[in-house]
Amino acid sequence: MTGRELTCEEVIEQLFDYLDREVDSQRRADIERHLARCRDCFSRAEFERRLRAKVEESVSVRAPQRLHRRVKDLLDRFDADETNSTS
Amino acid sequence: MSASSSSGDDRARHRQRRRQWFEREVERLMDRLYGTALRLTRHPDDAEDIVADAIGKAWTKLDELRDPDRFEGWLFHILNNTFVSEWRRRQCRPKMADDSETCEPDNLDATSFSLFQQLHQPFLLWWGSTEDRFLNELLQDDLQRALDALPDPYRMIVVFVEVQGYTYGEVSELLGIPLGTVRSRLNRGRTLLQKALWKQAREAGFTVAFRGTEGEPP
């Protein structure tokens, strides 16, 4: 533990570093201690976490069938080249 | 059977097993590879090119992969590098009229803005949370539109950090820019993204009780 409790301003200022796992374990523990007792900062952290999860979901897109076929053709070509070079 | 034809058969079987394993792994990751490439490039055709190119590179460099359990991270790293190289190549071209959106990102209004602060009404907590309502009503299409509207230098860092979980140091290395620049671009990217989401939400009729029409992005 560090010697003093973090203020709300300090926690908000470092919130994204915390969510991005860019703080050391000591600072992480200090922030989590604050979040456990401060409803406003906890709500803010939860909001940013949930928004981030939505951003993460934004890459959930179905790849088109033609891309699957293109990749298969590409690997077939590599295979054929390899077979020819070793025969 | 001669010794040479037997070793030839072994090689063929090994090649076949290797191909099957690679294809299975790639198929498992294909949707996310394409989705990531689509968020990075914003264009379906470009996204397909980047994915196919990255998979081709991965196949030819497969012997360099020491630990098969790290295949996913390794392949995504190749995808990101492929995108960054292509992006840099395009940046070197003489600027076309439609490239303007990627120019001078520092001129964009990225003054401090917090979506949470716009939404949060502590005195309304017993009525339910406006933040919850906003997140529940936020559609993936809206989010994709807001992400796609970010200029390239910001969007790619938001995708690397928020989607792929890269550290600031890894992004700095990947893009060849200082850590401070990664931090400032990420901060601006998030600010612009939250402003865009707020603007979209208000245009779609989202209201915060007791705020009336206040709370326009600054």
UniProtKB/TrEMBL annotation, chain A:
InterPro entries: Znf_put (IPR027383)
Pfam name, any one: zf-HC2
Domain Putative zinc-finger, chain residue ranges per copy: 8-41
Protein's name in the database: Putative zinc-finger domain-containing protein
The species this protein was found in: Litchfieldella qijiaojingensis
Automatic annotation (TrEMBL), chain B:
Family matches, as PANTHER family: ECF RNA POLYMERASE SIGMA FACTOR SIGR, RNA POLYMERASE ECF-TYPE SIGMA FACTO
Highest taxon listed in the record's lineage: Bacteria
Gene of this entry: rpoE
Assigned keywords, A-Z: Sigma factor, Transcription, Transcription regulation
Any Pfam family hit: Sigma70_r4_2
Record-annotated RNA polymerase sigma factor 70 region 4 type domain positions: 141-192
Family the UniProt entry places it in: Belongs to the sigma-70 factor family. ECF subfamily.
RNA polymerase sigma-70 region domain: residues covered: 26-91
Protein's name according to its UniProt entry: RNA polymerase sigma factor
